[in-house]
Amino acid sequence: MQVVEPARAEIERFLRRSAPAQLYALADLDEPFWSATRWRATRRSDGELEAVCLVLEKLELPIVHAIAPPQDCAVLALLRAIAHELPARFFANLPLGFAAALAHTHRIEPHGEHLKMWLPDARALPGVPEPPGLEPLGPAHAAELAAFYAGRAYLDHEREGRFFAPYMLDFFPWVGLRERGQLVCVAGLHVFSERVGVAAIGNVATVPERRGRGLAGALCARLARELLSRVPLVGLNVAADNEPGLRCYRRLGFREALRYEEAVVIRKAAPGSL
Questions:
Q1: What's 52's domain CATH number?
Q2: Strand ranges (DSSP E) for the chain?
């Protein structure tokens, strides 16, 4: 098997075959991600790509991303072939069952099964009443949002795998809700690319004492509607065991595209090393 560094055009052609599941990878074809990303792939006998893996090194904890159906043989073979060149520690977004390809060289800290969801019919997005106090959020709110996510947004057992970075506020206005001057609910973005035509809603959080009132659904509906005026494909990721989140997104018309695994993966020390 020959591992290649594919051209951007053929990566995009490959990813668009299953675009709702590949939304994040499609966004990485655009800046600010493209120049900070390494891509590896294998080809079919006809020359078309059969498996693609990207390594995003822009972040403090690099991301290795190769979304495919469970136990996808081509992706598992690619992971085995490039295991030696992966970062010593990274966050994985990989097919269900990927551990079989990396467990011999890496220690895996599972973060559970997740779903990639997308909005197949923008017309089905319901008209959700908006509570008073909604406002757009942007780069000027970076410090406030960092404090919100680090402090009030989550219960202790909900913090694993959460990720906020100020650069995300540059993509597109987020939506926040205030009560008595304090943020109580936020819906934001993980990626956005008008050139590629994709956006991923993320960093959706409601403080525990205000949950169950439909606030997150109202903010996500508002954000999705605004995003769809700019790009044709809007999606999101959600943990498979996040029942309130799943109910919220399904009510808004989001549908499952693919299930995958998230994990932190750490290279094992070589035998005999200190």
A1: 3.40.630
A2: 37-43, 49-56, 63-65, 89-95, 106-118, 134-137, 174-179, 182-193, 198-206, 233-239, 255-267
